[in-house]
Structures
1.
Amino acid sequence: MNHQEIARKRRKLAASLPSAEEVLRGSLLERTIRHRQGCARCDRGEGHRALVLTVTYPGGRNKQFSIRREQKQMVARWLKNYKDWKRKMEEICELNHALLRPED
């Protein structure tokens, strides 16, 4: 692939990146929360279902954010956008590496 083809492919990838406003890093989990006492539902062993976005930071620190049910689809879409964005950025970096090499 020559430099013009590489640059064209790079432009196409850059144009297809998801909007930066709709990118989210983390994992969406469904957890069961149980109260220690005073809750009939928890006493029966059912607990309360909760959606949680968990994000890991450097040093092994985690943050968890409660997500409302109506936000689930949006959060899932933003997480997918992040994965797509990251994959495409890696491809762009590889193309940039190729552009640094002399053309044959």
Note: The mean pLDDT is 94.
2.
Amino acid sequence: MSEPAAPKRRSWLVALPLLGFIALAGIFLLRLYSGDPSKIPSALIGHPAPQTALPPLQGLVNNGAQVPGLDPAVFKGKVSVVNVWASWCVPCHDEAPLLTELGKDKRLQIVGINYKDAPDSARRFLGRYGNPFGIVGVDGNGRAAIEWGVYGVPETFVVGREGTIVYKMVGPVTPDNIDAVLKAEIEKALKAGS
């Protein structure tokens, strides 16, 4: 009678790795889909903005003059909103009118980093929605986005007058978060530098 018990014990031993895998997969899925991805912390907050110079978007003009590319020196002395965007990014189309409206605030400068985009498409995008950016740097190979710690477009940063990153928003600017979150962080940066 002891022989039938042996195969039963072996079947449990065979099932243990499978049960372990299912438990681990469940934990990974739970962690993957829990939480708000816009609350991903940035290691760059409190650190100087990356010293990455970017060329201008050729052919993008404002009042007859070429819109300049990104020179890291522009962050000193001004509160800046840096938006990483692309014409192929669907949420970027949704946030564009909000950034255009934000660009009317003369207390700050709006800087665009055009990420891995075709120049013609980027110019058409800005022509369609209006250009909120006083500066547009082209990140054709994605190197600048890596230095800024970008997870994916769109992302928006607030840089204080000292040239230090004070806030990072992962994901698009929306009607729900522009006043409650982004403008609140801009106001903090404006007050801190005065």
Note: The chain is about 40% helix and 20% strand.
